[in-house]
C-alpha cells in the first residue's frame, strides 16, 4: 500500500477485514462525492517519509478542503496554490526562529524528504466540508502510527500544534522522545502561544544533542 517499511509496520492493520472494509467505504465516497486529496496522494506522508527515516512528526487535523490544495501532507499545499493562512504563520515563525525567508508556494515536500512526517489525523475530506471525515475510522490508523513511532529506539520530535494535535500526546509515553506543543498556527490562535514558540530551533537542538543530523528547514 505504501511502498516502504511502513507496509511491514502496518501489516496487521492493512490485512484486517475492518480496515479493508473501511477503505471500501472511502473508495465509495470518491465515487459519489468530490474528495480530497486525489486518491493517489492519500498516503503521501508515509510514502515520502519512511518509518526508519522519521525524525520529526508535525501533526495536522485533516486535509485542506479546497480544490487543488491537499496532496497528503499536513499544512502543505500543491505548487500553484495560494499559501493558506496557517502556513503563512508557520513561515513567519520559521523566519523569526531561524531567519529562513518564506517562499512563494506552500509545498513542504522537501521537509518530508528530510525526515519530517507531515501526518494528518484524518487523511481525506469532502470538498468544502472541513472535518467531514472525522470519526469515520482514519483516527484508528493514525493513532496506531503514533504508537509505532513511540516504540522507536531513536529519539523522535513530536510537534503538536493546537488541541486536536495535542490529543495524540497520550500515545507518546517513551521518555527518549521530545514533545513540542503550542497553540495552532491558525490566524485565530497564532498570537496565543504559537508565535515565539521556536519549534524549529528546539527540534534541531534536540536532534543535535542526540547525535542525529538536524533538519534542513530551508524552503
Description:
This protein has 219 residues and is α/β, with parallel strands linked by helices. It has nine helices and six strands. The strands form two sheets. It has a four-stranded parallel beta sheet with strand order 3-2-5-6. Strands 1-4 form a two-stranded antiparallel ribbon. It is globular, with a radius of gyration of 17 Å. The two termini are 29 Å apart. The mean pLDDT is 97.
List the helices and strands and how they pair.
Layout: H1 6-9, H2 11-14, H3 17-32, E1 35-36, H4 44-48, E2 56-60, H5 85-98, H6 109-114, E3 116-120, E4 125-126, H7 138-150, E5 157-161, H8 162-166, E6 178-182, H9 199-209
Parallel strand pairs: 2-3, 2-5, 5-6
Antiparallel strand pairs: 1-4
Q: Tell me the number of strands.
A: 6
For the largest beta-sheet, the strand count, sense and barrel status come to: 4 strands, parallel
Nearest-angstrom radius of gyration?
17 Å
Strand order of the largest sheet: 3-2-5-6
Choose one word for the global shape: globular
User: What's the number of helices?
Assistant: 9
Structural class: alpha/beta
Helices and strands, in N-to-C order? Answer: HHHEHEHHEEHEHEH
Mean pLDDT: 97
Proportion of residues in helical segments: 25-40%
Amino acid at each position: 500500500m505504501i511502498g516502504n517499511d511502513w507496509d511491514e509496520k502496518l501489516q496487521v492493520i492493512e490485512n484486517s477485514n475492518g480496515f479493508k472494509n473501511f477503505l471500501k467505504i472511502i473508495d465509495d465516497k470518491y465515487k459519489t462525492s468530490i474528495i480530497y486529496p486525489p486518491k493517489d496522494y492519500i498516503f503521501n506522508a508515509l510514502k515520502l517519509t519512511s518509518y526508519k527515516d522519521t525524525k520529526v512528526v508535525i501533526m495536522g487535523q485533516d486535509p485542506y478542503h479546497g480544490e487543488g490544495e491537499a496532496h497528503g501532507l499536513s499544512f502543505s499545499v500543491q505548487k500553484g496554490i495560494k499559501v493558506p493562512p496557517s502556513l503563512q504563520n508557520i513561515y513567519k515563525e520559521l523566519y523569526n526562529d531561524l531567519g529562513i525567508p518564506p517562499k512563494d508556494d506552500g509545498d513542504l515536500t522537501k521537509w518530508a524528504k528530510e525526515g519530517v512526517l507531515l501526518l494528518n489525523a484524518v487523511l481525506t475530506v469532502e470538498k468544502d466540508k472541513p472535518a467531514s471525515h472525522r470519526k469515520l475510522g482514519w483516527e484508528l490508523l493514525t493513532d496506531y502510527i503514533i504508537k509505532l513511532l513511540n516504540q522507536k529506539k531513536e529519539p523522535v520530535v513530536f510537534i503538536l500544534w493546537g488541541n486536536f494535535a495535542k490529543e495524540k500526546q497520550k500515545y507518546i509515553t517513551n521518555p527518549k522522545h521530545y514533545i513540542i506543543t503550542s497553540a495552532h498556527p491558525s490566524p485565530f490562535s497564532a498570537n496565543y502561544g504559537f508565535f515565539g514558540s521556536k519549534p524549529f530551533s528546539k527540534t534541531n537542538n534536540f536532534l543535535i544533542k542526540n547525535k542525529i543530523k538536524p533538519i534542513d528547514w530551508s524552503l
